[in-house]
Amino acid sequence: MRLYGLTGGIASGKSTVSRMFVDKGMPLIDADVVAREVVARGQPALAEIAARFPGVVTAEGALDRAALGARIFANPAERAALDAITHPRIRQAVLEKSIALAESGAPRALYDAALLIENKLHEGLDGVVLVVVPRDVQRQRLMARNQLTQAEADARIASQMPLDDKRPFATWIIDNGGSLEATRAQVDAVWKAMLERP
After folding, report:
1. DSSP string, 12-74
2. Same domain? 112 vs 175
3. pLDDT tens digits along 59-107
4. Contact 34/96 with Cβ under 8 angstroms?
5. Do 167 and 129 reside in the same domain of the chain?
6. Domain residues for 39?
7. Do 67 and 112 sit in the same domain of this protein?
8. Do 13 and 81 belong together in one domain?
9. How far, CA to CA in Å, does 171 sit from each of 18, 45, 100, 121?
10. In a 3-state reduction of DSSP, which class is residue 119?
């Protein structure tokens, strides 16, 4: 099975692009979904997070994502501490999901991960699709989606590798700054290229 990476920056429209690939029949492994699974109630990672970051688990025993986000996005050391708890578990879960897809006979699958390149997860994949948008579009989308101030949005954008720095790692680049039709046309072209790979 060929496993392709899909990445981009926060609010670049990765989810829109991944849905377009799924609509074509591409199985999807979504790192955000996996990340939520590994910190669900009763999971060992949640207990570690509660111990390391007091006050980020609700009285009902669920992760308070807003409280945790407020702590980690402004502090690289705190973010690194969270990553040390969650990333090994996410990697293991993704491996298990990709093995299951391969065993089911899927010829190709897509691994959607915002930090694909930062965490060197692109190494060993069969190609990388990078979704890009102009920074001002990224900021406006993030402010509208998450009800953030400009400073808060800029801090979240700055917590990731700049999109331009990711370009050299990309097999294909999809510019998602225009219309949905324009994005879909680019996805069609990438899909065709994937199907034509020997």
Report:
1. S-HHHHHHHHHHTT--EEEHHHHHHHHTSTT-HHHHHHHHHSTT-B-TTS-B-HHHHHHHHTT
2. yes
3. 899 999 999 988 897 788 999 999 999 999 999 999 999 999 999 999 9
4. no
5. yes
6. 35-105
7. no
8. no
9. 16, 34, 25, 14
10. coil
Which tokens sit at 39? Answer: 């910190």
First to last CA, the chain: 12
Helix residue ranges per DSSP H, 61-196: 65-72, 76-103, 135-146, 150-158, 163-166, 180-196
Nearest CA among 44, 14, 9 for reference residue 110:
14
List pLDDT tens digits, range 129-141: 999 999 999 999 9
Helix axis angle, 180-196 to 14-23, nearest 10°? 50
pLDDT the model gives residue 197: 86
Angstrom CA distances, 101 to 1, 21, 98, 140, stand at 8, 16, 5, 36
Q: Residue 23, class by beta-carbon neighbours within 10 Å (0-12 exposed, 13-18 middle, 19+ buried)?
A: exposed
Q: Do 110 and 198 belong to one domain?
A: yes
User: How far are the Cα atoms of 62, 75, 99, 116 from residue 91, in angstroms, in the given order?
Assistant: 22, 23, 12, 11
Sign of CA dihedral 182, 155, 44, 96: positive
